[in-house]
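Work package 3, deliverable 3.1, input record:
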Amino acid sequence: MSGKKENSMLEIHGLCASVEGTEILRGIDLEVKAGEVHAIMGPNGSGKSTLANVLAGREEYLVDAGTVQYNGIDLLELSADERACEGIFLAFQYPVSIPGISNAYFLRSALNAIRRYRDESEIDAVDFLELVRSRMDLVGMDEKLLHRAVNDGFSGGEKKRNEILQMAVLDPNLAILDETDSGLDIDALRIVAEGVNKLRKKERAIIVVTHYQRLLDYIVPDHVHVLSEGKIVRSGDKSLALELEKEGYSWIQADDARAGNNA
Amino acid sequence: MVAETWSKQVQTGSLNFDDQGVDLKRRRGRALEQFEQHGFPGRKHEEWRYTPLSRLAAGPCAPLLERSQEIAFCPDLPVDMLAKVVIVNGEFRADLSDLSRLPSAIRVQSLAQLRHSDPDQLASLLDLYWTQDSHPFYDLSDALLDDGVHIEVVEEGAKIDAPIHILHVLDGQARSGSAHVTGLIQLAAGAQLQLIEEIRSAGEVLGNLRWGIGLDPRSILKRVRAFRPECSSIFHGTRVIQQQDSRFEDLFCSSGAELIRNELHVSHEGTGCHCDLMGAYAGCGKDHLDHHTTIDHKVEDCTSNEIYRGVLSGQARGVFSGMIHVHQDAQRTDAKQSNDTILLSEGAEADTRPRLEIYADDVKCTHGATIGELDEDAIFYLRSRGVSPDEARKILVRAFTSEVFHGLEDRQLSDFIADEIQQSINPDGTNHE
């Protein structure tokens, strides 16, 4: 840990991962500090969502090589739920619906699981409701969604807003937003992005995974990384995203091909 | 075949009763004869194919000790009851019951009382519900008919707001044995009543419980049956006869038992009847939970909705056999039935047999059965929010059974029961030791 730079929350080195025998991540290096917003962009199949899911601890994704340090601990040693309790949050690209369980019950179970992990007392129903209500205002969510089954029959926008609500309530150190803009019209996109912006703070890092630049008009990143064929092929500031918007991904891939796939 | 011990026990027990009424005597005699002849049916008998009656045949047949001192094997249900009927080891216990707040619209007495005061009325009520066509448990109930409870809402249109709590305590801790209880319920036209039946057991017992329920026109009976954790062996049979525009809502809940055989027969005799038959159950270890329901749609414009959901782990077994019989005159019947099971382990097994027999041409009937596992995506979703795998599975089990509880307005009670089922689950599917 002696070589660790100050206030670096997440350090990924040479991360390789595969799913069902197919190699997807081929040596990712990434460093994220508290307070920063990083955007991971890239064409379909470049490994963006895999990176998000590997960080969240989905077991179908096998880490073949590399290290991930999170606040000085070996993240890869932790199970998905332990990672969440340590303050990592993944906003799903496709939030799962769970008929039969209310949103409120789901969220309270999650919050209390995290509080137990941290040796904090469980929150009671009254305090919980107060907390959730205050957070619902942030994402402009209707309170009646609280009492509906988790994501069951929700519109695309409602599902994504629900993810941000969960983030607001669970208060993570590191939030990873996986294609949070997919399936949203421009109004819904703006509302979701505004919610995320309100949750930016200096103790928190956010990784935004997206295919399109348009989300980054609203959530302005400090760093932009372009992923192609499982590697980060370009890093820069927010202007890189604009460049991509103009040129598309083909030039990156062409560049990458010319570079001869050297790691 | 009938085990010798059972035969002797039933014979001695049965001959002990000196009935006043001729009809009661006749029923007792016939039941004894039938039980002697047939005993517990074997696996070859279609209706009993999946029920391990051999466990019972080898089990305790001696009467349970009547005066059990202890009835608190588990925490009380959180309900404000209007009245409480406590039946310990088959005996109606006036000293433990509380009938002081009952309004005059409703009469509750012990079955033993009715047996002495009006044996002929009792016999005719029994004739109404149980025709004595050879059924091991109903025959045992008749042969050893002793006590139970008789509940009548006598005033037309009387709406009894708070529930009556019927607590069966089966205590085989000092000595294993069996108890046989008969309950009779009659609702006058337009009357409304709620029952919460609770079954607690400890030690090795066989509880043989049966109910005959008569619903006059427009009456509504809502019943919850809560089988508390770690029940021994229980047969629970109900016959319901519904008259015009009456409504019967039943909710069966069990968080595990060595053996429960739940038989439910609802007969719609008048038009416009409705019944809800709901069930939620969890089994682990070598638990066996066995449901046999029949709905007879005899006349037109009746509806029924049946949902049974089970979660099985260990080597637990769930059986569901649901018959919907739509008779020729029962036009415009609307009947729904489903049985869904989640298996949490390799060793758990579910046998489900939805059956429809339709003899009318203008009807709407749906039935279905599913057997599956918990949704892995949903488990990961919960885990990604900090919930442990075990708790995630428990939450999903609760989600799965929740629909069954929709009709129960008392949220506190439904949460309590759902919690109990949820807690009885061993999420990784292995056996509780």
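DSSP finds nine helices and 17 strands in chain B.
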